[in-house]
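This protein record is not my work; I was only asked to verify it. Would you go through it and say whether the fold makes sense for this chain? Here is the record exactly as it was handed to me.
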Amino acid sequence: MAAGTTVGPLVVDAVLPVTARQHLRNPRWPAHAKFHNAQYIVMSAVLGVVGLRLVNSPHGDPDHNLLTATAMLSAPWLGMYGAAAFPGTALIDQEFRDSPANTFRGVEVNILVGSICLSLLGVSLALGRRPRRTL
């Protein structure tokens, strides 16, 4: 999940043609909107790299590192839900409403991907935790 968080937003929002034209490569977006999309891409990369470092660190408590990394890596995905709640925002720009790249089996792709990523983070956390030692 950390690797996906590191490169996923860059690939989807700036590189992959079918989705990049809806985001960073959208000529209709104002420069400030592109700035915030780029900010999200960089933020996700930073969180992913730090998360990777934490889960691979030989220092500190591995359970604490895993919990911290999971919390950090969930931020971009939870942010999608929070952003959708703000007035004037939309999960899909109107001009791309009919694009097959935006839904999967009737579910909006941003919500689907965010939900899958959060689920995988939860499963990873549950499987990666070490049993507490009792005295």
Notes: DSSP finds five helices and two strands in the chain.
